[in-house]
Amino acid sequence: MQPGNAASSASEAASASETRPVNAASSAVQKPAEPRASAASQVPQPSVASQPPPVWRNPWLLVVLLALGLAAWQWVETRQKLADTQQEMARRLADSDSAGTEVRALAMQSQEQVAGVLGRLGALEEKIAESQSQQATLEKLYQDLASNRDEWALSEVEQSVTLASQQLQLAGNVHAAVLALQVADARLVGIDRPQFISLRKVLASDLDRLRALPQIDIAAISLRLESVISAVDTLPVAVEGRPQPSEEGAPNTADAAVAGSSEAAPPAEAPSVISVEFWRGLVSAELWKRLGREFWGEVKSLVRIQRVDRDDPALLAPEQVFFLRENIKLRLLNARQALLAHDQSVFRNELQRAQASIGRYFDAAAVAQQEALDTLKELAATEIDIAMPTLNDSLSAIKTFKLGQERQ
After folding, report:
1. What sign does the CA torsion over 174, 177, 334, 238 have?
2. In which element (H, E) is residue 181 found?
3. d(CA 294, CA 296)
4. Would the pLDDT of 224 be above 60?
5. In the chain, what's the furthest Cα-to-Cα distance?
6. Is the distance from CB of 151 to CB of 398 less than 8 angstroms?
7. Residues 6+ apart with CB under 8 A from 404
8. What average pLDDT does the segment 190-202 reach?
9. CA pair distance 188, 182, nearest whole angstrom
10. Which residues of 369-391 are buried (b: 16+ CB within 10 A; e: fewer)?
11. How many other β-carbons are positioned within 10 Å of the β-carbon of residue 136?
């Protein structure tokens, strides 16, 4: 119920209470007419108009009651609104607390992110500073390189000439020395400075001297030695024994043919002693020829003829043959090491000893033995000790040029 409606209802009640006493008074005025008519029979009663109206008919009481009801309703409504307001405030406070928690969490997260960004920024700044320092160093190096380009080129040329000298004196490798000098000359050509012309002349003279030297194919000689080392295991050993079938102990061609025909013919049934075929074969010439060949073969097996104008082959046990082959291999390996060191005496001595061992202990009729001996003879006749020239002229010219630049 609204306050406006309550006020209108209170005014209507007040007007109704005002009209009700008037009607009661009029009815009180009209009612005494009846008692007058029967005055003799009834006891006289007091007048109605002299009695006070009942309390509940008092309009002010109704107004007060209405005012109290309105005040009570207003109080209840105000209390309910206040409770609703308190609940709304509590809900909003809870929402604000949760929002504040989220804000604090976001603030902490943002602070961590900011710290991470600051750390990365610091690392980036360090890298930038490092790159700047490296760039400054590179610029300085480039400036030094640009200002000392001739010195760098001269150092490279000196290093190439020194390498060529080492190849000549230590390894005797003429080809490598020629390549090193060619690299040094190409470096001077790339610079194209007139002050290097005299130095190029000295390098050209040293190159001409190296190219005039006889070339020693060390790789080919080493491969030939390796082939002989591999063939040592297959060489047949020369041992004392019976002559081979191809020598004087070999049977005649006719005997071989008869023997082959007799072996190839299938065995026939032997004739009986009393049969005519037996006695006919007994007196035949073929039988006697065969008996004569067999007898002569037995006689020849009792006698062996061989040459005595050469040394007998050495008798070796099987385990000694193994050590013999290994000894020959070691001598050939020593010869290869002497080849790399350009030691002519050791190279030739080892080859000659290996050649003597192969010729004495292995079969001279074998093709592999003859090939090995021929190879060793050719290698022993090869000159591997060549007087190597020095490159002192080129090294002295480079040092003189460097001293002249330092004085300038």
Report:
1. negative
2. helix 174-191
3. 5
4. yes
5. 224
6. no
7. none
8. 82
9. 10
10. beebbebbeebbeeebeeebbeb
11. 10
CA distances from 135 to 123, 125, 139, 140, 147 (A): 18, 15, 6, 8, 18
Whether 147 shows a pLDDT value over 50: the answer reads yes
Q: How confident is the model at residue 21 (pLDDT cuts 50, 70, 90)?
A: very low
- What local confidence, expressed as pLDDT, does residue 276 receive? 57
Query: Does 258 have pLDDT greater than 70?
Result: no
Length reported for the chain: 408
| Contact between 374 and 176 (Cβ < 8 Å) | no
Which helix (DSSP H) or strand (DSSP E) does residue 26 occupy? helix 3-30
List of residues 6+ apart from 327 with CB closer than 8 A: 357
Give backbone dihedrals phi and psi of 237, rounded to 5 degrees, phi first: -85, 135
pLDDT tens digits, 357-389 = 998 888 888 898 899 999 999 998 888 877 778
**What predicted TM-score, i.e. pTM, was given to this entire model?**
0.42
* Alpha-carbon separation of residue 328 from 315, 356, 369 (angstroms): 17, 10, 13
- 3-state secondary structure string, 6-17? HHHHHHHHHHHH
- pLDDT at res. 62: 81
